[in-house]
Amino acid sequence: MTQPDKDAAGGIATAAAGWPDVEQLFGVRGEPSRCWCRFFALAGTDFAATPPADRKAMLKNRFDGGAPAPGVLAYRDGTPVGWCAVEPRQCYPRILRSQVLKAAGPDIAGPAIASHASHEESPGAPSVWSVSCFVVSPAHRRSGVAAALLRAAVGHAKAHGATVVEGYPVDAAKRPKAGAPDLYHGTLGLFLDAGFELVSGAVPGRAVVRLRVGPPSSG
Description:
Elements: E1 5-6, E2 12-16, H1 19-26, H2 31-35, H3 46-49, H4 52-62, E3 71-76, E4 79-88, H5 93-96, H6 99-102, H7 106-109, H8 111-114, E5 128-136, H9 145-159, E6 164-167, H10 188-193, E7 197-203, E8 206-212
Parallel strand pairs: 5-6
Antiparallel strand pairs: 1-2, 2-3, 3-4, 4-5, 6-8, 7-8
């Protein structure tokens, strides 16, 4: 397992995720143990048609192929207490097809995505990584875990070649009744506090935010 880095807040340590600790955190009850963070990886009706056991196997496979870990973990006293999924945007077909991204326009979505012509990234586009999901153990919510995870996710993406890190948070000011099941994207305030810039609020209550972590593409 990657050695966790100590975070300044609340005795939290973070590290690139390892499968055994993800499996421990997600457990056997609750939405994480049913979704296995595959909602954005399975477009259309594919998610509903895929049993939870198969979703779990799909996520495990992301750790077995030699690619960077598909997320980061937060720890307290050596126990995993939070997860943040972060991967290149093209790993998430549902995000590429989402109205939240398309409504942001071609400068953000890329002309091919915004025009519905293709779901591939545009040639010469910056290497965009997406922060798609947070899971925080109920006993550790509102204690700095999500903020530590987001910092770690940005560092993980940058270390593996990202030039832009993107998120799709809920704007709690416009959706004040949003509960925990709606907030797995993270909140707009969380991202803004981490230095992200709001680049689209075209879909009410949902934002697209970005943080540049590398030089602009020369393509």
